[in-house]
Amino acid sequence: MKFFKYALLASTLIFASCSEDDNNPEPVNEEEVLTTLTVTFESGFDTVVMQFQDLDGDGPDAATVSVSGPLSANTSYDAAIVLLNETEDPAENINEEIEEEDLDHQFFYTVGSGLDANTSYVDLDSEGNPLGLNFVLNTGGASSGGLTITLRHEPNKPNTGLENAAGETDIEVTFDVTIE
Amino acid sequence: MIIRNSHLNSIGVQKTPMLFIFIILILFNNPILSQDCNSSLTLKVIDLHDSSVLQNASIFIKELDKNVKTNSNGEYVFKDLCNKEYFIEISHEECETIQTEVKIKNNTIKTIRMEHHLNELDEIIVKSNFKSKSKSVFENKVSKQTLEDYSNNSIADVLKTIPGVSTISTGSSIAKPQINGLHSSRVLLINNNVKMEDHEWGIDHAPSIDINSIEKISLIKGAGALKYGGSALGGVIISETLKTKLIDSLYGKLYSSASTNGKGGTITTDITKTNSKGWYTRLQGTFKRFGDYNTSNYIMSNTGLSERNFSLKTGLNRVDYGFEVYYSFFNNETGILRASHLVSAQDIFRGITSGIPLIIEDFTYDISAPKQKIKHNLAKFNFFKTTDLGKFNFQYDFQSNKRQEFDIRRGDDRNTPSIDLELTTHSLSLDFDSRFSNNLNLNLGIVGKYQKNFPDPETGVRRLIPDYEKYDLGAYSIFDYKLNPEWIIEGGLRYDYTYMDVFKYYKTSFWESRDYGEEFSDIIVEVLANQILTNPKLEFNNASATLGSKFLFDNNNTIFFNYSMSSRSPNPSELFSEGLHHASARIELGDLRFKPEVGHNFGFTYQKSNEKFSLIFNSFLNTIKDFIVIEPVEIMQTIRGSFSLWEYRQTDAKLFGADLNVDYKLNKHINLIHQSSVIKGTDTKLDNPLIDMPPANIKNEIVYFNSDLNNLSVSLQSEYTFKQNKYPDNNFEVYIPTTETYEYIDLSTPPKAYHLLNFNSRIDIHTDKNKSINLGLKINNLLNTTYKNYLNRLRLYTHDLGRNIILSIKYKL
Questions:
Q1: N or C: which end of chain A has fewer CB within 10 A?
Q2: Cα(B145)–Cα(B137) distance, integer angstroms
Q3: Considering only CB atoms, which chain B residues are within 8 Å of A146?
Q4: Phi, psi of B517 (to 5 degrees)
Q5: Residues of A numbered 100-119 whose beta carbons fall under 8 angstroms of chain B's beta carbons: which are they?
Q6: Residues 62-81, chain A: which have Cβ within 8 Å of B?
Q7: Are B43 and B90 in contact (CB under 8 A)?
Q8: pLDDT at residue B256 tops 80
Q9: Can you tell me the mean pLDDT for B35-56?
């Protein structure tokens, strides 16, 4: 049949023209992934580092959470948060992006029951509302409990806390903290 | 809205035939005397071009002194005839009258092929113009009037008017049809004889078809469906444009409508030029624009829609040969409810607890992230030739589907899509529709297809669907045979071979957790720091088959029975998903080891129709082996909090259900319509209900029509949807560290039952030979009821659409 001949001819042409691509697709290194959150607490006398690291992001490997040591009682700590994307080499510092889009971000610190401490914001966004990459943590007496750090994307600003901040959670990690 | 099946459309809109029938029966000088007159003659009237059945063709045999018309199957059975020759005359609107001699010998079956050209201008006779694609399964069709009533909506919305079809949606504008509980890859969508390849696997991927580009739409199962694919466990939806007449003519329409909900509207127009030599051209275009939709009492922010489509059809249609070139371009941008962009369990908890969207802003036409942008190109060329053997059709088609999904992102990526896929498909097919005898039809064909998916790495997000090339080769053979005047059997076989050449980057941690290394070490191409490039080469062989039968008790009662086996290869999402799927708010994991799922479907339909009353009862039982489902397996901790981890899994499933459609003509002006459907789906391995099964629903409608009052039509419809009581419990508990509480996240409990009232009316304000103007007023959710729909995936965060008043004007010339 004529038809078969044409069909075969056409199919050969099409299939041949479309199958030339032998190049392997390039890998995608995710730019927005946050793998690592590090908070460094400095009192002038001692330094405590807390870190949450999940190198495979939403992959199956569990995150590692570390706290370098106890905080001292009745001490004022200057705390600084560093966010990294360690899937890239070298690791990308995400702080810059947060600072550039300060109106769209805010950190929150939740001191768990049992932990005798309070926090206050240090850095502000361009409209004078808290951003929170830096904060102060004042410890009270010896105690222990969780310290949760939350980063909300596109929250309502100003707000009085997580209750009415809305937005989307970009970070929510909890460290087990001891005050001695 | 008027919801009715065209078959039931008996509200007196049947136009008086333009040509009345002159029936002559000439008794040939037949002196054969006494003989038994127990013979019968079954006459079937079909279209010469495409074998579609012609309903209401007039047949007369003088001896019986009876003026009869063919039924919806294009048939009429004369009984108690004598074994001799009769001269009969058959006529039909728009057809040349045929006179022929029929020699009766016992039970004679005679098929009359008429040169029938559709009267496209007259929507009212459309119900008789559908080609019957399947003989042993009742074919559901949507009338052209209903199609026009849904000009503002999507193709899924109009299909919902068919009993047994529901829609599964992501918000108010992204909807896809669900047939007898199945959707996505299990439903094939055919657009002008081209199988749509538009990333149809995704539950949030609506069909890329402009509802205004099509002129008829029907749902088929059984043997006719095999022609289009063997994987249609749910069914095949056929959307088409109408054929044109062999006359010199220029006609078209302009239709525009405006809606209060979404504060937008649709303008669509088409124009067709035909000539008596068979040349034709049709140009069509649509523009749609809506802002944020609203529920009964708040705005659903970022749910706007913008759509621009056009299509062009041109060709030659002669009796024995012809060709057609069809091109369509579909382009839309759809906003997704801003407040639904919640992914971590803690955020989902906030969203669900609120019950209404966490973000409600002022009305706007702007569409921001999250949103989807779709561009679909479809081009088709076909050539057909009718010979003594039958009709040959050769077709080449091309499709390109560009799909971009935008998430809420940070920094330089803010305006970069998270998903950017380009799916290109070329397909060649050859179909042969035989004309061996009046009793046997045979349809054979082969299809070859090449497909390439290109996920753009510029998104900066790991590919949800990998790069792949796919080759398909399919062959089918379908027959129907008329055993006797009352009984038709049909059957078919199809074989599909699929080869996939995939390049996929796996996360090393996932690759290892699945132990793929042991089984698939040979597919590794390259090992990077934290990813592995692999080259899976997958082969699938699928056989599908069907056997069915249709039995006519008499001219008013018909039963259909059908068995079909369908096989579906796992789709790329089921095979390769690995990571966060923002649209589903969960981490989804596929499995490279999946094999095809195989469904066995038994269908039974009883149809009764006479002038005043029609009833269609349809029931089915579908058992599916290796049914692929996705379900939650655990809660995973990430830097963003807890995530629900969902894994695809193969199990066995059983679905059964029934639907009923009754149409009663109370008097000349009033019609009563009832529709109801019920379905149950079970995971038989776990003895658990299946997710997303449509709840039972009942629709009752009263329609008033008066042809003396400018074809005034007014209808009121009541739509009651029950609560779905059978659902899998996918709820989970999660610890919220900021409140130091454990919270129960209820993803599963279906919303309560609801009742909606819908109103529809239309009237011709001007009609003459050359043009007509028609006005329409439609009110959906008349009472502004507040409700949630189980099959809307955003129901966790928002209610459904509030009252919508739609005004439309249609101008035809």
A1: N
A2: 24
A3: 737, 740
A4: -55, -40
A5: 100-101, 104, 108, 110, 112-113
A6: 62-63
A7: yes
A8: yes
A9: 74
* Contact (CB, 8 A) for B462 and B450: no
User: Residue A58 and residue B396: Cβ atoms within 8 Å?
Assistant: no
* Distance (Å) of CA B249 to CA B18, B27, B246, B280, B315: 18, 41, 9, 9, 15
Question: Is the pLDDT assigned to residue A4 strictly greater than 50?
Answer: no
Of B452, B528, B579, the CB nearest to A58: B579
Of B410, B529, B639, the CB nearest to A63: B639
Asked if B509 and A6 come within 8 Å (Cβ–Cβ), the reply is: no
- A172 vs B448: CB contact, 8 Å cut-off? no
Contact between residue B334 and residue B375 where contact means Cβ atoms under 8 Å apart: no
Residues constituting chain A: 180
A·B CB contacts under 8 A:
150
**Which of A2, A13, A168, A176 best probes binding to B when mutated, by most B CB atoms within 10 angstroms?**
A168
The reply to whether A11 touches chain B by the CB within 8 Å rule is: yes
- A16 inside 8 A of chain B by CB: no
Q: What is the least distance, in Å, from the CA of B411 to any CA of chain A?
A: 6
**Rounded mean pLDDT, A107-119:** 94
The helix/strand/coil state of B42 is strand
Residue A35 in contact with partner chain B when CB distance is under 8 A = yes
Nearest to A60 among B396, B459, B513 (CB): B513
Residue A159 scores a pLDDT above 90: yes
Give me the percent of chain B exceeding a pLDDT of 70: 91
**A2 in B contact zone (CB under 8 Å):** no
For residue B167, give both structure tokens.
């829609």
**What are the strands, taking DSSP E only, across B508-596?**
524-527, 531-534, 537-552, 557-568, 578-581, 586-589
pLDDT attached to residue A40: 97
Cβ density class B57-68: b for 16+ within 10 Å, e for less? bbbbbeeeeeeb
Q: Which of A62, A29, A35, A31 is nearest to A171 (CA)?
A: A35
Report pLDDT for B381: 98
Phi, psi of B799 (to 5 degrees): -80, 180
Query: Which domains occur in chain B, in start order?
Result: 6-114 (2.60.40.1120), 120-238 (2.170.130.10), 244-812 (2.40.170.20)
Are B20 and B714 spatial neighbours (Cβ–Cβ below 8 Å)? no
The tokens describing B302, both together, are 């970022």
pLDDT at site B32: 38
Q: CB–CB of B122/B65 below 8 Å?
A: no
Chain B residue with the nearest C-alpha to that of A151:
B640
Contacts for B294 with CB less than 8 Å, ≥ 6 apart: B261, B262, B300, B363, B801, B802
pLDDT of residue B259: 96
Q: Which of chain A's residues have a Cβ under 8 Å away from the Cβ of B533?
A: 24-25, 27
Alpha-carbon distance of B129 to B123, in angstroms, equals: 10
Question: Given this model, what pLDDT does residue A90 score?
Answer: 87
Q: Is residue B510 within 8 Å of residue A59, measured between CB atoms?
A: yes
